[in-house]
Automatic annotation (TrEMBL):
<feature type="domain" description="Lysidine-tRNA(Ile) synthetase C-terminal">
    <location>
        <begin position="380"/>
        <end position="452"/>
    </location>
</feature>
<comment type="function">
    <text>Ligates lysine onto the cytidine present at position 34 of the AUA codon-specific tRNA(Ile) that contains the anticodon CAU, in an ATP-dependent manner. Cytidine is converted to lysidine, thus changing the amino acid specificity of the tRNA from methionine to isoleucine.</text>
</comment>
<keyword id="KW-0963">Cytoplasm</keyword>
<dbReference type="Pfam" id="PF11734">
    <property type="entry name" value="TilS_C"/>
</dbReference>
<dbReference type="InterPro" id="IPR011063">
    <property type="entry name" value="TilS/TtcA_N"/>
</dbReference>
<dbReference type="InterPro" id="IPR012094">
    <property type="entry name" value="tRNA_Ile_lys_synt"/>
</dbReference>
<comment type="similarity">
    <text>Belongs to the tRNA(Ile)-lysidine synthase family.</text>
</comment>
<dbReference type="GO" id="GO:0006400">
    <property type="term" value="P:tRNA modification"/>
</dbReference>
<feature type="binding site">
    <location>
        <begin position="32"/>
        <end position="37"/>
    </location>
    <ligand>
        <name>ATP</name>
    </ligand>
</feature>
<dbReference type="GO" id="GO:0005737">
    <property type="term" value="C:cytoplasm"/>
</dbReference>
<keyword id="KW-0067">ATP-binding</keyword>
<dbReference type="Pfam" id="PF01171">
    <property type="entry name" value="ATP_bind_3"/>
</dbReference>
<keyword id="KW-0436">Ligase</keyword>
<keyword id="KW-0547">Nucleotide-binding</keyword>
<keyword id="KW-0819">tRNA processing</keyword>
<protein>
    <recommendedName>
        <fullName>tRNA(Ile)-lysidine synthase</fullName>
        <ecNumber>6.3.4.19</ecNumber>
    </recommendedName>
</protein>
<dbReference type="GO" id="GO:0032267">
    <property type="term" value="F:tRNA(Ile)-lysidine synthase activity"/>
</dbReference>
Length: 487
């Protein structure tokens, strides 16, 4: 072979610069039958004797173009026989797959190609070589630019990605066609490439020629830009990895530490974490995560069964939906006070024992929410349940944690955080739905009785009374239950 050909010279330089191939390597080539892949097959086969390369080929029939797709496969089979290269063929119904997952045929076809291609390379213990050219990379940059891509999208197609190498990435499409002409190589043409039905075709036919009118060397210029941007991206990604190391706390990451980094590193660090979980990352998702840095608790569903959680200043991943944290509520208790919580109004009415007996005679259903007022200690609060809260039944003699009590009486988990508790420094006195604890129960020795009246309220957490307005957690004029002082 004439190694003075432009394609050969540039391919050798690329292979050397990126250490793509070594003597004796096993290589599997993605072969479509088009000019690019035919040129790469010819080039690699020319190195078999000198470099001791073992060359295989992989062809995917996408099932998109009917007889034309079958023609391409037959062409590849004949070509590989000519070069004595083993060909592996795979067939996919891309149109059906695209409809099933609601994505474009281009995108689904690309994923299928790489899935088969990389699996075969792994099976053969080979490096995977694709025939992407500089022209392909320029089209990718223009496409990503139009989509508003960040730095990564302007880096073009990488010369090397994991086990995938691209020896022709510095070669233009025109140089490929010149190589085929000089070498007398035939190839097939995909008829869909001639239309503007696909976005990449429109870019190839209209936008890239426009760039070449502005600058005949535009493809080289874009290629150089992408190379510089790849270097900058690699540096920033290393810095982001260090930022993650600094923030690592066991199985999670310290949000304050991540938030102290430059915003560019925050975005890259979050992207790296998401990709590490196999999540498809876009700018909107990254911004959602960053926005959650400013809240005490957040749960973001990344995909079915995988959640990103922010809690107690830590960011971590969890399989399965995390239990919803109960709303924490705690207000100082005062008699004659009105509180609104979770769509209910709580009124605390105080009676002497004689008044209470009239209530007892008229409506025994109200007795459940009556408490011995004089047994309430200083600093009593009305709050949601807490770990370790215990309730002693006044008539049955048993004592249970609220957790066990709610479980036994089948209180739905979402409802448990909506039940209020009256407690003082000695413990629970009353539990919504269960009544007074043994310590707070009304007896024949009771002097004053506190009645809790619970009613549903209208509106979003606000009620209106003659004396003013009551927002959730605020109260009207009342009396201090210990001193009898009017408020």
């Amino acid at each position: 072979m004439n190694h003075d050909l432009t394609l050969c010279r540039k391919a050798f330089e690329t292979i050397e610069s990126y250490d793509m191939l070594k003597r004796g390597d096993n290589v599997v080539l993605g072969l479509s039958g088009g000019a690019d892949s035919v040129a790469l097959l010819d080039f690699l086969c020319s190195l078999r004797q000198e470099w001791g390369l073992v060359v295989h080929a992989c062809h995917i029939n996408h099932g998109i173009r009917g007889q034309e797709a079958d023609r391409d496969q037959a062409f590849c089979e004949e070509l590989c026989q000519k070069y004595t290269v083993k060909l592996y063929c795979f067939t996919e119904d891309i149109p059906a797959l695209a409809v099933a997952c609601g994505r474009s045929q281009e995108e689904v076809a690309r994923e299928c190609r790489y899935r088969h291609f990389e699996a075969l390379a792994d099976e053969l213990g080979a490096k995977a070589a694709t025939a992407h050219t500089l022209s392909d990379s320029v089209e990718t940059v223009v496409l990503n630019l139009a989509r508003g891509s960040a730095l990564g999208g302007l880096c073009g197609i990488p010369p090397v990605r994991c086990a995938v190498v691209r020896p022709l990435i510095a070669v233009t499409r025109e140089e490929v066609e010149d190589y085929c002409a000089r070498r007398g190589l035939s190839y097939v043409t995909d008829s869909t490439n001639e239309t503007d039905d696909y976005t990449r075709n429109f870019i190839r036919h209209h936008l890239v020629p426009g760039l070449l009118r502005v600058n005949p060397g535009a493809q080289r210029a874009v290629g150089s830009m992408s190379e510089v941007l790849r270097e900058q991206r690699d540096y920033l990604e290393r810095q982001a990895a260090l930022a993650l190391q600094r923030a690592e706390r066991g199985e999670g990451y310290d949000v304050a530490s991540l938030s102290s980094e430059h915003i560019a590193l925050q975005r890259l660090a979050v992207s790296a974490l998401l990709r590490g979980q196999g999540v498809q990352v876009d700018r909107a998702l990254v911004e959602r995560v960053l926005a959650a840095f400013g809240v005490e608790r957040a749960v973001l569903q990344l995909r079915r069964g995988l959640y990103l959680c922010l809690e107690r200043g830590l960011l971590f991943f969890r399989e399965g939906r995390p239990a919803k944290e109960e709303e924490s509520f705690c207000q100082p208790f005062e008699a004659e006070k009105v509180i609104v919580f979770q769509g209910k109004t709580y009124r605390f009415l105080c009676y002497d024992y004689e008044q209470f007996k009239n209530i007892e005679n008229n409506d025994k259903s109200l007795l459940k929410n009556c408490i011995d007022y004089d047994r309430i200690k200083v600093n009593a609060v009305l709050r949601t349940r807490r770990a370790g809260d215990r309730f002693s039944h006044p008539g049955r003699g048993w004592t249970k944690t609220l957790k066990k009590l709610f479980n036994e009486y089948h209180v739905p988990p979402p409802e448990r955080g909506r039940r209020l508790v009256l407690a003082d420094e000695e413990g629970v006195l009353w539990v919504e739905g269960f009544g007074a604890d043994r310590r707070g129960a009304v007896t024949g020795l009771t002097g004053r009785v506190l009645q809790v009246v619970i009613t549903p309220c209208e509106g979003a957490g606000t009620i209106e009374k003659k004396g003013g307005e009551c927002d959730e957690g605020r109260y009207f004029k009342g009396t201090d239950h210990r001193a009898g002082v009017e408020k």
